[in-house]
Amino acid sequence: MSLLIYKTEPELFEDLAAFIISVAEKAIAERNCFNLVLTGGNSPKKLHELIVSAYKDKLDWSKVYFFFGDERNVTSDHESYNGLMAKTTLLDPLGIQENQVFYVNTALAPEKAAIEYQKAISKHFNGSDLSFDLILLGMGDDAHTASLFPHTDILKEKDPAVAAVFVEKLNTYRISMTAPLINKAEHVVFLVFGEGKAKALRQVISKEEEDTDTYPAKLIRPISGSLTWYVDEAAASLVE
Fold first, then answer.
1. Predicted confidence (pLDDT) per residue in 170-197, tens digit
2. Three-class DSSP category at 236
3. Which of 22, 166, 170, 238 could be bridged to 202 by S-S, CB 3.0 to 4.6 A?
4. Which residues have CB under 8 Å from 210's CB, separation 6+?
């Protein structure tokens, strides 16, 4: 695990964007394809804007395929739909074609949406191991990541899969990649900033704290890939 701490958000986003592009270039050179899992929420908006402004003409985007680590159980035109945020801030500005983007079909019931999303992923990998090149993750102040919320059933999943999960504190369903699927990736990156994340970050990276049910982000331990935290000083303020 690597913990990278930045004084400013612009520095953080610049380094993270450069890292994503370097991994993409390597994957495209080796396999003619780069499989990227995006994170939702508002945290990656500035990252998306930087990629669009600085790297639009520096990568063959026709060879990049986009997935989502989790999705909210809302319609695809809802402002909270992760796919819509990515489409608006990243995918459309880059001119990404529809067949390069794997959206979660939330018109289906959550369990069915999860099943169909896993089928779509499996079809894309065409029998190969379901190992993404890079997975971007955020983390909430309750230490959830993707839709792996504290004390939810999905935390017990042992298979690399996509699953529906009812989040009682939000009184809603989510569709999410399980920790075992995330842990198969070649690179996993957390993007965390803000003082509100400081307590959670301290607990999650602590070697002494092993309560993954309370701190789900601790479940993210890539099997053979890299794990890197990109955080600002505010988020790292309680880290020793």
1. 999 999 999 999 999 999 999 999 999 9
2. coil
3. 238
4. 218
Query: For residue 68, what are the CA distances in angstroms to 55, 80, 170, 213?
Result: 21, 14, 20, 23
- pTM here? 0.97
Q: How many CB atoms lie within 10 A of CB 24?
A: 23
CB atoms within 10 A of CB 74: 14
Closest by CA to 82, choosing from 29, 128, 146, is: 146
The string of DSSP codes covering 53-91 is HHHTTSS-GGGEEEEESEEESS-TTSTT-HHHHHIIIII
Per-residue model confidence as pLDDT tens digits over 96-134? 999 999 999 999 999 999 999 999 999 999 989 999 999
Distance (Å, whole) CA 51 – CA 55: 5
What is the rounded CA–CA span in Å between residue 41 and residue 224? Answer: 27
Q: Assign 13 to helix, strand or coil.
A: helix
- Which tokens hold the place of 48? 């998306």
- What are 5-60's pLDDT values in tens digits? 999 999 999 999 999 999 999 999 999 999 999 999 888 999 999 999 999 999 99
Instruction: Please check whether residue 29 lies inside any domain of the structure.
Output: yes
Give the residue numbers spanning the domain of 75.
2-232
Confirm whether 239 is domain-assigned. Answer: no
Tell me the residue ranges of DSSP E strands in the chain: 2-6, 34-38, 64-68, 70-72, 134-137, 162-167, 172-177, 187-192, 226-232
In a domain, 240, yes or no: no
What is the strand order of the sheet 70-72 is part of? 70-72, 172-177, 162-167
